[in-house]
Each structure stands twice: as structure tokens, then as C-alpha cells.
Specification:
By secondary structure, the chain is an alpha+beta fold. The protein contains five helices and twelve strands. It is globular, with a radius of gyration of 15 Å.
Length: 201
């Protein structure tokens, strides 16, 4: 499945910090060897404490994030409490799996902060679910993961995690032709989902 996802290219990553989670993706939208856009958005706010990011077809991720956001809001209305990060990740997993032989061509990160603390999950196009402290996906993942593996440490702050993500993203963008044109980030804490766009040269 990854060969189809990498047609469009991307570098997307997530990092767990002691006070939150960072989700980030570069802005270039490509198909094969052609750049379609330099301003694509691949990170999405799902609820006031949960975000998602993708590598793959942006249209599929937009569809998935809207559907997951709607179900998350229905959960809050039905149970009078926000959906947990684990439950939200499982919701994404179910939505992906139910597509069966016509999958959404996206690798997905789901992260956020709830009463159990910050957490981060990765999903493939068929809904397989894995939890980790740092994850990189897409055509630039191997390069970004080298930086994350070398420099990630538990207990880092959101500010420190932000700098690590930018270093990893900068490294991937310099070496992966399908990644570039700046970085969109969600900085998720217990109180808010902050959005930031950074232009990397």
C-alpha cells in the first residue's frame, strides 16, 4: 500500500512531549514528479484537544478528518464528556478498516492530550494502529526518523519538541524532492490546539 501513498509524497511526523503533542507536515503537494501545490495543509484539528496529520492523498485525509470530527462531536453529545485520544485513534482505525477493498490512501497520525496525558498513534491505510512516542511517515520518513531517533528524549517540553520537529523536517525537506515549501504544525496541550506555519529555507 505504501507504494501508492508515496505517489503523492509527504513528510509527516508526530512527537510526544511531557506537556503535549506536536503534529507536523510539510506543505508541498506532489503527484509523481510534478508539484501540484506549495500550500497544501496536511494537519487537522479534530477536537479542542486532538489533532491529526497525514501523508498521502490530501482529499482522502480531508474526508477522513471531517468524518472523525463529526463522530467525535457526537460522542461528546451522547456521553457529556470528550472522546479520549485512544478512542479517537480507534475511531480513525474503524473508519479506515470499513473501506475494505477501496481504502483511503493515507497514512495517518492521531495525537492529543487527555486525562491520561499526551499520546500519539499511527495508522496505515487499512487501519492498523500503533502507539509510540515519536513517528515519521511518508516519502521523507527515513530521513526524518534518523534525526528523531538520535535526538528525541523523554520529558522534553513542547518548546524543545518543536525545535526537534523543525530540525527533522528541515533534514527531510533538503533530501526528499517530494517534500518542501514550509511546515504546518499543531502544538497540542491540555488546554488548546495551537496552529503554526513555519517557512524553512
Amino acid at each position: 500500500m505504501s507504494e501508492y501513498i508515496n505517489i503523492s509524497g509527504a513528510t509527516t511526523m508526530g512527537v510526544v512531549c511531557k506537556d503535549g503533542v506536536i503534529l507536523a507536515s510539510e506543505k508541498r503537494v506532489s503527484y509523481g514528479g510534478m508539484i501540484l501545490s506549495k500550500s497544501g495543509k496536511k494537519v487537522f484539528k479534530i477536537t479542542p484537544n486532538i489533532g491529526a496529520a497525514c501523508a498521502g492523498l490530501i482529499s482522502d485525509m480531508q474526508t477522513l478528518s471531517r468524518e472523525a470530527g463529526a463522530y467525535s462531536n457526537l460522542f461528546k453529545l451522547d456521553y457529556n464528556r470528550p472522546i479520549s485520544i485512544k478512542a479517537a485513534a480507534k475511531l480513525f482505525s474503524n473508519l479506515l478498516f470499513q473501506r475494505g477493498l477501496r481504502p483511503l490512501l493515507t497514512e495517518t497520525l492521531v495525537g492529543g492530550v487527555d486525562e491520561e496525558g499526551p499520546s500519539l498513534y499511527s495508522l496505515d491505510a487499512l487501519g492498523s494502529l500503533l502507539k509510540d512516542n515519536f513517528i515519521a511517515m511518508g516519502s521523507g520518513a527515513e530521513i526524518a526518523m534518523g534525526v528523531l531517533e538520535a535526538e528525541y528524549r523523554e520529558g522534553q517540553t513542547l518548546k524543545e519538541g518543536r525545535e526537534l520537529v523543525l530540525r527533522a523536517m528541515n533534514s527531510a525537506m533538503k533530501r526528499d524532492i517530494k517534500s518542501g515549501d514550509g511546515v504546518d504544525m499543531l502544538l497540542i496541550s491540555a488546554n488548546e490546539v495551537g496552529e503554526e506555519t513555519v517557512s524553512l529555507k
